[in-house]
Amino acid sequence: MEQFLGGDSVIRKSFESTSVSFATYDKTHMFLEVTFKNGAVYRYKGIPEEAVNELFNAPSTGKHFQASIKNAGYSYEKLK
Description:
The protein is α+β, with helices and mostly antiparallel strands and 80 residues long. Helices cover 21% and strands 38% of the residues. The protein has one domain (2-78).
């Protein structure tokens, strides 16, 4: 399920994944916040919108996240 928050600038999607609960993308600031099933929350910076669209539509969210976001060298910070 996708939710648009604050107009079209922030999108939130929940996943049926064994590792990822949901993700929130801020188009304006190019931040992707990912909340994992274990409760950890990370913010990835400088993520292009097309990378997020691919993640949101991937058949395996966890595998795609690992390959295209986590291992792609984007800077990040742990929020929780």
